[in-house]
Amino acid sequence: MKIEDVPQDLKYMKGTVIRDTDYAVDSEGRYQRVMSSGWEPKNLALDIIMEDIDEQCQEILADVRAGKSSPLAYHAARNLMDLDLLADYADIPKRTVRKHFLPEYFAQLDEATLAKYADVLRITVDELKSIPA
Amino acid sequence: MELNLEHRPNAHCENGAISTLLRYHGLDLSEPMIFGLAYGIFFTHIPFLKMGGMPVTSFRTFPGVLFTRIMKMLGVKTATRRFFSQESAMRALDKILLEDHEPVGCVVGMYYLPYMPLEYRFHFNGHNIAITGKDEKTGDYTVLDANAVEKVTISRKDLMRARFPKGGVYPLMGQMYWIKRMPKELPDLNKLIIKSIKKACWFMTSEPSFIKPVGVNGITYLSQRIRTWEKTMGPRRAKLNLAQIIRMLEEIGTGGAGFRFLYGAFLQEAAERTGLTVLNDFSRRITEIGDLWREFAYTAARIFKQRSDNQKNYDDLGDILQKIGQLERQFFLDLNEAVQ
Q1: pLDDT tens, per residue, chain B with 340 residues
Q2: Of B88, B87, B128, B42, nearest in space to B332 by CA
Q3: Which of A59, B37, B271, B329 could bridge across to B279 with cysteines, CB 3.0–4.6 Å?
């Protein structure tokens, strides 16, 4: 790769301090360190993965609206956590978390457990109880 | 309290942490040198080993190995610790940082790092950062993250969380490492360079042909498998799998083309140090192979863009990979011969 070919397709790293460092050759064939702000194929790859996550979230959201799942299931999916990971982080047994994914059990949860989940998912308890309209 | 260290962006997080620790002790090695000396270049594609539901594809050795290798080679005495309790992990960090005045490398999960862009926050538990200071009043830590363009700060709570991520292949348990003692005199780097190149060649080409997923065999193996992806898992899964490979190839930290350019830079520097000018030719050759990897990513991008998929594109990818596989095999065989 030549230095002038180092891609600068800023998309995902916008507004952060994170940048890629690429190694590229100059006109004399010497390797130099060049900063890059992203590359289109990589951004597209991330798009594909993000779309997939979004789709899964939308499916769960539809379930929540239909009364088949609790908002907790949605927020966990938003945070890329499956049941195992959420149970691990919240330090609550898996079978209990599985119950909390159902609306009727979720409605009976006490404040302490809700606060625990909210802390893990980095949202407030009110946000945890609601879903985006 | 803050240690006197300037920030230097690096392609790969582990190289960055190693470089920070060594620089504090007055040994200034460039990133390609660190990567090359620790013979980090590698390839493996293991379909039955899943990480986040995707097969593992890697362009480098296992995380954490680079540090052990290079410190052993240089004869530096280091220490690594893991903890059961989060509080004692933070206490031990404070002690080494504030009392012994040593920069500390920490292995952390990426998800809870506050300065990462939202889209890079995946549950990946193998990011390396170097901690070089602590603000006594607020309790915030100064972090040199190789992927950032400047020094960043992180609150105590966030750091504690990041050091104890859940899930993943093995528990991190607040793993941290630091340098205990530098050797009185450094070993001859030229000898080490030759040794490292030999080892890299061995890791890439020594596998017998029936061990398919590892070394250059892995590239050929992937080239065979990628052609069938669309048939066996459907267009959607195939795209996701391909996206995963492109991310491993170009995601933060490879320096472009899955470490191939980084290795090219190492060979060039090695040629200068050792006076073996033949290494310059090899540097040029691996650069060309790296460009082919970039072409592979471009072809993949075409598949991402189009809505209706057709089988032919995956065949194109297979062809490129097959070519890369042949070229890399020849490259490492020739390189091995050149340094004998």
Answers
A1: 777 777 888 888 888 888 888 888 888 888 888 888 888 888 888 888 777 677 888 887 777 788 888 888 888 888 888 889 888 988 888 888 888 888 898 888 888 888 888 777 778 787 888 898 888 888 888 888 888 888 888 888 888 888 888 876 677 888 888 988 888 888 888 888 888 888 888 888 888 878 778 888 888 888 888 888 877 887 788 888 888 888 888 776 777 787 888 888 888 888 888 888 888 888 888 888 888 888 888 888 877 777 655 556 778 888 888 888 888 888 888 888 887 7
A2: B42
A3: B271
- Nearest CB to A80 within list B123, B243, B268: B123
Spell out the CATH class of B13-37+77-181: alpha beta
ipTM over 0.85: no
Whether chain B has a CB inside 8 Å of the CB on A46: the answer is yes
Q: Which two tokens stand for residue A69?
A: 């799942």
Domain ranges of chain B: 13-37+77-181, 189-338
Angle between helices A40-65 and B216-250 (to 10 degrees): 70
Contacts of B78 (CB under 8 A, 6+ apart): B67, B71, B177, B178, B179, B180
Nearest CB to B148 within list A1, A17, A30? A17
